[in-house]
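Thread: "does anyone have the structure for this chain?"

Original post by V.I.:
We have the sequence but no experimental structure in hand. Need at least a predicted one for the grant figures.
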Amino acid sequence: MKKIMIILLIVISATTLFFNNNKVSAYTERDYTGSLYELKSTTSKDTYLTYLEKYETVFPDQVVEVDLENFNYINGLVNDDVPYINNFTDDLGVTKEGLYIPESGDLTLEVNVPASGYYNVGLDYYSILGRSSNIERAIKINGEYPFIEAESLILHRFFEDAFKVSEDRVKGKSDVRPRQNEKHLWTKDTLKDRIGYYNTSYYFYFEDGLNTITFESKREPFVLGNLYLFQEASSPTYMDYIKEHQNNGAKVIDNNYTIEAEEAYLKTSPSLNPIAEFSTSKFSPYEAFITRYNAIGGNNWRIAGDEIIWEANVSESGLYKVTFKVMQNFSSGQTSTRSLKVNGQTPFEEAKQIEFKYNSNLQYVTLGGDEPMYVYLNEGKNQLSLAANIGTYGSIVQRVNVLIQEFRSFYREVVMRTGLNPDIYADYLLSRYIPNFQQRLLAFEAEIIDIRDEIIEISGGLSGLVSAFDRTSNQLKKFIIDEKNVQNGLREFEQNISALGTWVISVSEQPLTIDQIYITGDNYKLPGIRPNFFQKLWHEIILFFGSFRDNSDFGTGVEVDGPTIDVWIGTGRDQTTFLRQLIDESFTVQNNVNVNLKMVNMGVLLQATLSGNGPDVAIGVDQKMPVNWGIRDAIVTLSDFEDFDEVASWFSPSALEALTFEGKTYALPDTEDFLVMFYRKDILETVGITEIPTTWEEVIDISPLLQRRYLEFYIPLTQGAMSTVLYAMIKQYGGELYLGGGRESGMLQPQNVEAFLNFTKLFTDYEFSLEANFANRFRSGEMPIGIANYSLYNTLSVFAPEISGQWDYGLLPGKMVDGVLNRQTVSTVSSSVIMKNSKEQEASWEFMKWWLSKDTQTDYARAMEAIIGSAARYPTANIAAFEQLPWPTKDFLMLKQQRQLAVGIPTVPGDYIVGRHIDNAFRAVLNSNVTPQDSLYQYHLKINQEIERKRKELGL
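Reply from O.Q.:
Generated one for you, tokens below.
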């Protein structure tokens, strides 16, 4: 059956093969559907190093061009987004012909290779408009991934500041952080290791004759202008580099130039924006009590592969020293590593790993150290770039990643035999039933000891870097002595595996702050960098008195003659700072409204409102607050505004449901999150699950396959509140939570009773877990499938990088009703409201429309991800803005479809008791053996009593 479905998929996809159009027609999306194809494992077992040992080490010295006009395209997820050849002009006016490659689908090219051997792959590409994230592709050679690293290859996009931070700088007023604009450029590059495991372009083996190269889309479209196989010239040593230039007459030039690092020319990530540093007065520039964006990097510049490019304009060609004024106080006992390029080329081998050692103070780092290494610069403009990489720990990190995968596989095999809580006295015969049990443990111990010794050699002695390895090594020794120690030490073993994963993250992240770059001759004396005693004392005094300032008020330098409104926001400082910037840039002057913005804990909103000190607009309030305050006439009814219907159309109906009561809408949604189903592709395949479940019946069907191996399906529960999964099932079965517009409970409807009965069976008959940390257990593989809000994506992307590519998410399981599969999910929102006591309600409405508009939400969402990272991807409720966020196409289409199936939980007077009593009914079935129908009936009556009492109290 599996083979038949795969063949059918290929046949269906093949009808769209071989596109060679010159135009792209209207954007038509396909529905997302789960399939066998998603669970098919095609991961290579070779790392790049083992791949290099597979074939004869021959490196033919030939350039082989790939014909871009002869291509094959399948598996596209957007019907009319297809490859085509055309001329493309970049932002510098450079025009080239290229092949447009969509952000979804697989594009295969043929290449006729005259001689077998290893080749580098070079390309010219154009970063066409996309969703502002890195271009990512997997590469197959002749239909196979050659090595693990080839499953995720990155091509950079480029970003620039909208303006220089020094422009319009006014003494006594804070700087404005420039927004990051994408610069679309034609770029020459190679398929290479960006992270720093190997610090080289990858070699790919091609047989003589006809071969195929497949670009398997992961993220973002791009244009391929040229693709060729070649041998990249190796970088010379510094001695060869300097000798060549000296032989050509180059001399050390005694001119000196200073670059303010925050004013970079280009960067490969929008997160690399200027930052404000005030830890010492020696940062340039510096002004007490004032925000000066005077540096770049910091914690934002920690991801391996991220690169910053500066321009250096010199008046004379020749050799120059390069010195960086930096702060590296992030990684105690470690170095942050960067690779240097001059005019797009690595000047010499030693420039691939420039180390910036830990220091709590500002420091100068000169290329070459005490024996400076000079770089050759041409007269006029030159480009200097630094790219983060893992450095000396690269190969170790790669080995630890492989070891973690092997540990997790071994751990799951043991758990499948013993369960999570094995009997300490039982003999599970692990050595008999787990393949190569003893040999694997011995190999694990030998590898971890070898890695530990190598870390000690690199770091120069024992340090905190080896503690996780010591603990794991000691435990492995116990496992080898007695196999019963394995079953008794499972929890500790899982913790040790997680500790190794944390070690990988901490070592892989390479933060660095750069203040200035000096390009000098031999005679230049660098400015003093250490403050004297009095300077340090004065700086501390300033910081002390500055701590008494009101940091909740985010002032503005923009004022107009119009009305003034107070806006409170309940998020973090970074979010508030950028919102302040957006207000100044695109709201105040355009709408003639002044805005006082404050960062406030929304828990004080009630007290502030009652005392008459509340805001005009509150951003980020809980979804239950608007209706409960609105029916008490404490906030403005937004649906009374004339243009409300147009504004409401920006959001899905599910996002408005909890904010509306009896036809009146009291708030508009900022964010919308909803349930999806996460699953581990690697584990489901190993236990014989070949399709992700689409119905609750199929969830029950796969449960024995999981539980037989002590694995579980996760369903979220919250003590004292109705499960969102239960509410989704109620809607899928065709039921309603309330009747008569919220006048009484609808839980005794036949559909609701059936949904409640089947929901409780999951925990009584099928023994699903009542409580679990899903993120942790999903990471370890103990819960390889489960339900959670889609925002868990952010957590897993950052928290569990070792399982990247091994998990996915899909639509919520549903219920077949009258031949139709209902797959409703449940959404939760945060919202914005206008307070009733506002004297500027019209101005507040104008602000709310601006804040929740497509453009503002898109700018805000992208900025949050740029400033904080992918963990801060903003779940905007604005549908048009959501489409602009940097989701891979497959993820976007699935989330869009699930959002269309979302329902909100209505808010009614007295609803605080509803969720509590439905959960009480559920717990009574579990804990007191009450029949579900009787339990539901008893609490249904109590719910109606409270709703009736509350409505009478409010005069409804």
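V.I.: this helps a lot. The chain has a mean pLDDT of 88.
O.Q.: and The CA atoms of residues 122 and 442 lie 42 Å apart.
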